[in-house]
């Protein structure tokens, strides 16, 4: 079997930058120069501001900025600074308390003014007073130009209410240490110290593949996100330190809400001066201003970016791959071109799957990366990193931002690390799950899109911190600095505080995050990114599993908070129960908002009021009310809400890792093979690059079998057809329930029964589609639901209700959908998000019937009148009734009417007119020649034994008695073989109808055959006419029948295991096909046997004795599957091949195991289906040329005993009884009573222990130690069933159990167990009771 293609990991490879051939679009960016010099001047002593310096005369609030305001002899000191590019920039500012602080290495002290006076900021009069000086730290000459440098300086007076502006760092040391004057502090702003630069808009000029993928066209805005601050052309001094590449990530959101993840590396490479104009060269400092003389001590560099786009957020893997590609381009020479490595990674590296959870990609002999399967979680997959969220924000700020997200504030995140921006932004929108952020969301916003910060709506935007070098943030925006862990809010608004969250739940969240933050500081250590091959293979689980676990614990803390926050929200959803109007879909019509607010604590009203007014909450209510692509996630959240509804929700685990698909299997992906010369020598290295090369399409490898690209909206899309699709949470919950009920005997059978009904509802869309009266079929399904409620069936999920609701919407039956919802609530089941969505869709989109009273009401009234008149006429008809036929009291006139109807109507219509109780007394037959016939275990005619072997065994316990009178006159047809109608009637599965002629395994003809012979008081020709009519109808309609049995042989102890014993031994594992033998406890796979044969008498034992099947009838043997296993296989089949496969003729041949198991269970429960119509078209019935195509389907008989008896074993007692009852003659009535009759007499007298003792003694006296395949319980049960009828089965269980208890005292339980004399287990008895009525014997 070929393995299914995996989704492609990488969709596009893009090179973004400045196209040499392209137009260059400049960006308006005025580069701010860094501060290179500081000075303190004493204006009171006549000092002036030095040339090129700027004096800080005012504080931020407009007050005087004198540094010496507290001195007695005030020299009026002021701080001055100068910007420029002639020196390395100043990196930090500080304050030195001489004698108290020690000067750090690399720091400089401003001890004097430019005029050589002291720059001491304190009064030096007191001998113990320490001096105060300003200090600074400068960058090294060899340090890169793109390091952080001071770009602005300010002074502030906290006593005047002044605070440091956003992105400013305050030095927490008071400059005024004197006795007078307010405290004065210095603050400064740091930004990237840029060289002479020109900024242009990024453009895309290289990509692979060159054509757009059909499922995912390449967005035009990708280059802008690769270089969000634009493409810079810069001139550097020749001794500038080499700049390392910068990794960044971004997220693109399509119009449909699908996310595309991008990973990019920005780097510098040399740029040709010939591409610059004279004006550009002058601005970059490459030409002198006066004489335009070239300046040769500077180099020209340009920024470029390489990027990959994917639907999967494997940012770490993409970073390693892009780093390898960049290093490959700057090294060399190489044998293979760069294009070979790019195409190999894109086409040969698949998405990790359960079959290959770990993929080790060998990029080169020295470079590798490990790709691991994501954690299987019901939460949506995203690029969020809760570790980075907590690491960069801390517990308090993380809770504060959660409040800002829930109340939809404007959030502006900024950092100097672009990759951190995306990870933290994704975590912000993920921690409010299940609420989904609907407003603008740009984790890494390019400079050209900065206008979004002026939008009059909430947003979450991330920008590079250099944005504040050019612009100031709007006043109504909450700014979050991820580098300094600070939140800046406007002064005119009340600041956000995490204490505004609901007190109890907010405090629990804060305490949990605090503990996790302490653990995070211990776990996260630097230096783990550089990993060798040995590290990846040996230490991966040990190093990274703790981080993965901590990531889930942080995410679970937020999920627990949201579950407690919205606890009980489903009880306030308002279902649509009337014809829709204009306001039906409004949130106020779908949700009881006032009731929800009243259910919350009074102190939390303000927060909940703000929450319910947000777009997120409105969208959440709509998604819960209608069909949504997030139905699986919402269903998981509903389960979390149920889990936290306890006293201590913090102790409940909400996210259970799915370790079923985890494994240690690692797939190795080798690098591209290097070509060789014809003589076997290595090829010369021809590929060397000075800059990142222009990709050549002819060098890319295009494999013939490319990986599949994920279709748009393929993840988590809602099903468009009624085909059932259980979510992972529903499957997991069903497994837990099955595991729980498997230990409870009386619940296990109901669990199996619930899965059986679930199988039928999965088949229901196919059945309804094939029916002409579709509305009637839907009402039949609704009656099945009511019947399930009456029988207290344990349903594993809501699929039964959901499918019927969806079909109601498909066929326009909104009223029936409302009735299904009411039936669901009556059963105590609260519909989950998926079911509730399909319900509202059905009642909203369907056409409702008119509410005005029309002709239908009048016809209903007339119908009621006629029914009332008919009820009054019944006593009169009873008085006029004369003449009866047999014990049924059927009149001759009635039989004449029935015979006419039989000749003019179908057999099924005829059987629907007779409602007579069914009995199980066997009736014999006599042929026209007067020869005796016997009946086997299936009520089939068997010729008299005429040879040794089995015949000799049969005669050991038999003596002949008198004959019985046959029912039929002049006909050889054995009416006991007449099967039930192929389609059960309306109430064939009703428990109150048990034992009637409407049963699945019973029919009117079986009743007539089981009754005493008819005593016709009128003309005998009536009886002959009726028999001929029956024979004619059966010969026209019933030509083929299907016999099925689940009786299986245990090879370990050679014992037959029957249906209820197999059911009781099944496990709750939906992948386990085994059952266990109740006698030797060995595991075995039970089989389901089906035989297609001619309708009519079947001689089972005699045909086996002759060594051939019945008339060469074909037999099918398939594995007998538990309903849990069968449901899993059926759902997998529908998922892979679609729902139409259930109606195709190939279904029987290609999926015979599923087919015959479905037929078995549907027949057991009397549920209608069209599966048997596929049997007529199959090759199995091709030999039966008399099959008529007018009959809807093939009749099925479900047998209790095996279809293939072993003739070497001792025959069962019920076979001997039937043969004995047919072979007795009048002349032998005075003979001694045989042991079989005596055994039956003891059973009838409630002396089962004597019957068991007699049977064991009889077996012991037989020569050759005969062996039996059936247990003693089964022998006496079948004998009771054959001789006394089905009504005595339940009473027999109690009798045999009492007999076993009595015999245990004399023979011992161990001896009885060896003889297989133990009674049926309570679990097996309950299985038989649940799957009533019993099978045929």
UniProtKB/TrEMBL annotation:
Biased composition (Low complexity): 710-724
GO terms of biological process kind: regulation of Rab protein signal transduction
Annotated Gene Ontology cellular component terms: cytoplasmic vesicle
Domain MABP: residue ranges: 32-192
Pfam families listed in its UniProt record: dDENN (PF03455), DENN (PF02141), PPR_2 (PF13041), uDENN (PF03456)
InterPro entries in the cross-refs: cDENN_dom, dDENN_dom, DENN_C, DENN_Domain_GEFs, MABP, PPR_rpt, TPR-like_helical_dom_sf, Tripartite_DENN
Gene3D superfamilies from the UniProt entry: 2.100.10.50, 3.40.50.11500, Tetratricopeptide repeat domain
MF terms (GO), sorted A to Z: guanyl-nucleotide exchange factor activity
Statement: the UniProt record of this protein carries the keyword rRNA processing: no
Region listing for Disordered, in residue ranges: 708-728
Sequence ranges assigned to domain UDENN in this UniProt record: 184-633
PPR repeats: 797-831
Keywords: Guanine-nucleotide releasing factor
Protein name: DENN domain containing 4B
